[in-house]
């Protein structure tokens, strides 16, 4: 009797479990049924209006949830914001500013008059006026503001005084009427406009919220209010965002029923693309080939704005006085650096480690930038080990003790110490090893050290003597000015390259007295500068990578240029 | 018993204090800080970084930083996450329900499967069924959860389409409805099984071995001699004794409920405590990192205590005084 009862319980438990599992399975399949119904619906409507459908926009890392231009910190968040909000200015394929929500006029590059588009609606129904922009500028200039954007406001006249609490408003901002505003900068610069913060913030949404609390507040994290073609309907923190069309969008009619942003782990990206579960994701170049082989998605590449380099520590920087206080001799000979450049087969290296989704670059400016010097004006340092050896011999780096390695001109042991950051990806070590191999091949003994990434940048920034030759990458912005990473007084000039001529050229290119308002003139100076650093090679410019994205075959209308993707209002789904 | 519990709880305080010192020192000994690492020069500038370091007190000496942190901490102010820019307590509250659901589902599945398989295998040892269960268990023990997770997604999601491959819920369903909860369950089931795989295996084998051992004991022979039905012998006399070692695990299981599962949550992009912890380490988000570590330590201590107390409850031979 007992026995049977216990057996009964056991069976009941098993049955319960299997029911549970089955219920889940059943629920799932009903879920897919729904989806299928949805898609057939779209197909039906396709025939009539070719509109509708749900796009799944995937990101491969978790958003921080700071969904406001003024507060976001990482690219993932910025990508999501770009789906539901837009700025006063947009950038074309040459990274030149173009009017979007506002047009501007200036005579001297010091005072700008902006005219806003009339009748533009926020997602909460408010009309966009210049006051929203003033609100954004004052928020960023507020002493309690904890985001990184003050850089884009501080050039406005009086911003500094406002931030220090000496003024109640920013004196350089003058509201003329609801749609017209005059901005005066502290001085005329060629890049005042591109540097200016061009994103208004909705005033009613932030009403009653102190600036110090804004970044964690609901209008940033839970119900952001934008100006874009889609508006945020729902956010599940850390995993998904649901966007629906905004009927009152000022510039066209959004064509899809929904955009769903999903976080997808890298290990699932290919499978999800193959199954058609996601319509868009940015992929790493090394995954490019696998994406190309899929039937359900296309790989799209567009020019990127970053370059990768091998730098030489040429000196030591003092963080307090912001100047280079000491110069190192080890890599001071230009011929040594050039020889190390000739020794690298960059094409082969890029093919091997970035599946060919990159190009050798010969200057610290990506080709897509309008200031980029043409390769015909530069030394392209083609792979030439013989030339490298010649240069080394000439500079006195010869093997004097017959150990197979070159000694320095004084006859002492010479070992190139190469450091590369380590994030746990085994590929990083092999690509670094490949570089050391090139140098070994021309007789330079090279040691590789992989350093944990946080420690690496810490050491790099503080000029730790352990770092001599290092691998790195820089992104360049919409404005081409490279001062932040190249001037001798810049903390991020990691090579500590100190050349008055280079500093002078970089200053000239920003100087209104020299270049006026002419882009041509400005470009000329930058080309001059690129020739200089191409000859001096304080760093070996290795490659510029293409941006690689996977787009599902059913998603149409999405276009890319160097400034990113076009407005989501043009995207549509075609089954 | 009450005295014992109180004594243990009091004993936790110095322990937690020591843990906090060690963890704080280790966390800050990590190279860099929340503002270092790969820098996008277009998105920040050195002045801002220096200003934020000053504002957050990262330039102060270690002992001052510690004193500031601990005095806020004991007053219930866990600080603000440098990465998410929100209160740590809010952040944890946001993620905790996901993790608890995952942990609880995993626990339920683990116990049901472990009991069912363990009892069967213990009762019929060295039969085909037992070997089958044994084989399954060793498979479960041997396979790391990140492999199991990736394969589960590949097979059940991409090939068969039974389960979603990411997230904790379908964002389009309305919150609070039955559909919403079914969607939650649907999302949690696979990570829960993957998470429970190791425990299922070890609990089953534990139970099986204990049942076999107990079934050879004198009291069982006596019971058999008296003519007690087999079912009663197994389910009453043996099982009661065999459950005791499993009880010790229960304390830790409670800890697991809240700790989250770093790897499983990452693979299924399931936003829970484990994922939060991993990110806080990677981004050196000290307030989150410290609060979570303290929470985990506290729970481990509590879990231990619960296990000890439960032990006394189920095993009359153990008296806690």
CATH superfamily of one domain in chain B: MetI-like
Structural class of chain B: mainly alpha
Rounded to the nearest angstrom, the radius of gyration of chain A is 28 Å
The figure for the number of domains of chain A is 3
Tell me what you see in this structure:
The complex is a heterodimer of chains A (575) and B (321). With 575 residues, chain A is an alpha+beta fold. Chain A folds into three domains: 50-85 and 228-279 and 554-574, Periplasmic binding protein-like II (D-Maltodextrin-Binding Protein, domain 2); 86-212, Alpha-Beta Complex (Dipeptide-binding Protein, domain 1), CATH 3.90.76.10; 304-546, Dipeptide-binding Protein, domain 3, CATH 3.10.105. In chain A, 33% of the residues lie in helices and 22% in strands. In chain A, strands 11, 12, 13, 16, 17, 18, 19 and 20 form an eight-stranded mixed beta sheet that branches. In chain A, α16 packs antiparallel against α18. The radius of gyration of chain A is 28 Å and the shape is globular. Residues 17-49 of chain A have low confidence and may be disordered. With 321 residues, chain B is mainly alpha-helical. The longest helix of chain B is centred in the middle third of the chain and has 38 residues, at 178-215. The radius of gyration of chain B is 24 Å and the shape is globular. At the A-B interface, α1, β9, β10, α8 and α14 of A face α2, α4, α6, α7 and α9 of B. Chain A: One of its GO terms (molecular function) is peptide transmembrane transporter activity. Chain A: Residues 96-486 form the Solute-binding protein family domain. Chain A: Residues 30-49 have a biased composition (Acidic residues). Chain A: InterPro entries: Opp4A (IPR050034), Peptide/Ni-bd (IPR030678), SBP_5 (IPR039424), SBP_5_dom (IPR000914).
């Amino acid at each position: 009797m007992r026995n049977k009862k216990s057996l009964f319980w056991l069976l009941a438990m098993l049955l319960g479990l299997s029911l549970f599992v089955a219920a889940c399975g059943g629920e799932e399949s009903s879920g897919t049924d729904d989806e299928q119904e949805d898609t057939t619906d779209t197909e039906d409507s396709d025939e009539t209006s070719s509109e509708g459908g749900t796009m799944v926009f995937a990101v491969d890392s978790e958003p921080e949830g700071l969904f406001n231009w003024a507060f976001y910190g990482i690219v993932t968040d910025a990508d999501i914001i770009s789906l539901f909000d837009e700025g006063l200015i947009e950038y074309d394929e040459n990274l030149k500013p173009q009017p979007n929500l506002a047009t501007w006029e200036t005579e001297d590059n010091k005072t700008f008059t902006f005219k806003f588009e009339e009748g533009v609606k926020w997602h909460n129904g408010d009309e966009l006026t210049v006051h929203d922009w003033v609100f954004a500028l004052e928020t960023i200039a507020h002493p309690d503001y904890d985001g990184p954007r003050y850089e884009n406001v501080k050039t406005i006249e009086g911003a500094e005084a406002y931030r220090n609490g000496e003024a109640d408003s920013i004196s350089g901002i003058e509201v003329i009427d609801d749609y017209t505003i005059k901005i005066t900068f502290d001085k005329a610069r060629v890049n005042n406009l591109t540097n200016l913060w061009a994103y208004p913030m909705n005033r009613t949404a932030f009403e009653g919220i102190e600036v110090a609390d804004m970044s964690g507040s609901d209008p940033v994290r839970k119900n952001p209010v934008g100006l874009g073609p889609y508006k945020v309907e729902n956010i599940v923190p850390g995993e998904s965002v649901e966007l629906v069309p905004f009927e009152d969008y000022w510039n066209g009619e959004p064509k899809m029923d929904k955009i769903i942003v999903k976080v997808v782990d890298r290990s699932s990206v290919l499978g999800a693309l193959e199954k058609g579960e996601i319509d868009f994701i940015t992929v790493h170049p090394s995954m490019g080939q696998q994406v190309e082989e899929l039937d359900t998605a296309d790989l799209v590449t567009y020019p990127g704005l970053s370059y990768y380099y091998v730098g030489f520590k040429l000196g030591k920087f003092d963080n307090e006085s912001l100047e280079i206080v000491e110069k190192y001799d080890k890599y001071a000979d230009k011929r040594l650096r050039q020889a190390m450049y000739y020794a690298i087969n960059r094409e082969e290296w890029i093919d091997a480690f970035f599946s060919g989704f990159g190009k050798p670059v010969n200057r610290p400016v990506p080709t897509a930038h309008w200031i980029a010097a043409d390769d015909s004006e530069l030394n392209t340092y083609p792979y030439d080990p013989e030339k490298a050896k010649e240069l080394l011999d000439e500079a006195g780096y010869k093997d004097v003790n017959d150990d197979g390695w070159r000694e320095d001109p004084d006859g002492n042991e010479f070992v190139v110490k190469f450091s590369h950051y380590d994030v746990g990806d085994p590929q990083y070590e092999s690509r670094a090893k490949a570089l050391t191999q090139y140098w070994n091949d021309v007789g330079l003994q090279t040691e590789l050290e992989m350093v944990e990434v946080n420690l690496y940048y810490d050491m790099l920034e503080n000029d730790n003597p352990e770092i001599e030759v290092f691998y790195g990458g820089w992104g360049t912005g919409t404005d081409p000015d490279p001062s932040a990473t190249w001037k001798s007084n810049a903390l991020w000039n990691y090579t500590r390259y100190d050349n008055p001529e280079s500093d002078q050229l970089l200053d000239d290119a920003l100087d209104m007295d020299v270049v006026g308002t002419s882009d041509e003139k400005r470009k000329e100076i930058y080309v001059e500068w690129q020739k200089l650093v191409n000859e001096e090679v304080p760093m070996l410019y290795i490659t510029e990578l293409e941006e690689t994205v996977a787009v599902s075959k059913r998603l149409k209308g999405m276009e890319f240029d160097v400034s990113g993707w076009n407005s989501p209002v043009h995207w549509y789904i075609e089954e | 018993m009450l005295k014992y519990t109180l004594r243990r709880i009091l004993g936790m305080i110095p322990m937690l204090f020591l843990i906090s010192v060690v963890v704080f020192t280790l966390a800050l000994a990590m190279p860099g800080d929340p503002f270092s690492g790969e820098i996008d020069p277009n998105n920040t500038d050195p002045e801002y970084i220096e200003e934020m370091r000053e504002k957050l007190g990262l330039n102060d000496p270690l002992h001052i930083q510690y004193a500031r942190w601990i005095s806020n901490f004991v007053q219930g102010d866990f600080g603000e996450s440098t990465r998410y820019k929100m209160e740590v307590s809010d952040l944890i509250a946001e993620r905790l329900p996901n993790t608890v659901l995952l942990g609880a589902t995993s626990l339920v599945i683990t116990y049901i499967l472990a009991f069912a398989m363990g009892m069967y295998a213990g009762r019929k040892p060295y039969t085909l069924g037992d070997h089958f269960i044994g084989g399954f268990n060793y498979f479960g023990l041997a396979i790391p959860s990140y492999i199991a997770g990736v394969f589960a997604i590949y097979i059940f999601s991409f090939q068969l389409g039974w389960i979603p491959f990411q997230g904790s819920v379908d964002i389009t369903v309305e919150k609070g409805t039955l559909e919403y909860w079914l969607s939650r369950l649907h999302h949690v089931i696979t990570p829960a099984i993957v998470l429970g795989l190791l425990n299922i295996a070890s609990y089953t084998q534990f139970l099986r071995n204990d049942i076999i051992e107990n079934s050879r004991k004198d009291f069982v022979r006596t019971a058999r001699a008296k003519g007690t039905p087999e079912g009663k012998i197994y389910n009453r006399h043996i099982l009661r004794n065999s459950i005791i070692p499993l009880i010790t695990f229960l304390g830790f299981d409670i800890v697991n409920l809240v700790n989250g599962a770093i790897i499983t949550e990452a693979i299924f992009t399931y936003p829970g405590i484990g994922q939060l912890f991993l990110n806080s380490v990677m981004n050196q988000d000290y307030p989150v990192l410290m609060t979570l570590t303290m929470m985990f330590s506290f729970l481990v201590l509590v879990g231990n205590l619960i296990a000890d107390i439960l032990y006394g409850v189920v095993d009359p031979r153990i008296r806690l005084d």
